[in-house]
Design goal:
Elements: H1 3-10, H2 17-25, E1 33-34, H3 35-45, H4 51-63, E2 68-70, E3 78-80, E4 88-92, E5 98-101, E6 127-130, H5 133-136
Parallel strand pairs: 4-6
Antiparallel strand pairs: 1-3, 2-3, 4-5
Helix pairs in contact: 2-3, 3-4
Amino acid sequence: MSDLLERLRDRGWRLTAQRRVVAEVLDGDHVHLTADEVHARAIERLPEISRATVYNTLGEMVSIGEIIEVSTDGRAKRYDPNAHRPHQHLVCYRCGTIRDVHPSGDPLTTLPAGERFGFTVSAVEVTYRGLCPDCAR
C-alpha cells in the first residue's frame, strides 16, 4: 500500500474505488502532477472516473492536509503527496519540471528578527529555480 493510501486509511477516510485510484496515481517520489495528468492516469486504471471526481478528490485531499497544492509561475496547479515531510521545490523555469529538495538547515531561522516586522513566522516556502538537465542542453 502506498504511503498516501496508508495515511488516508489511518485517518478513516472512506476509500471508494475513485479515491483509491487518485491516491495510487499520486504515489511515488517527486510526484507533482496537474489535475489533468492525474485524470489521464486514473482513466487508465478506472475508465469510468470523471474529471469532476478527480478535481473533487484532489480538493478534498488538499483540505485535509494529505497532499499539497503547488503553484509555480502561473502554470497549472500541481499536486504533491509529500505533505508530511518538510521540503522545498526545485523548478525548471523552461519546462516546469519540479523536484523535491531537502536543503540542510532550518529556513525559519534564516530570517533576521529585524526583517520579521513583528510577525511570528510559522512556515516558509522556498522555491529554487533553474534549468533542468534536459532544458540546459
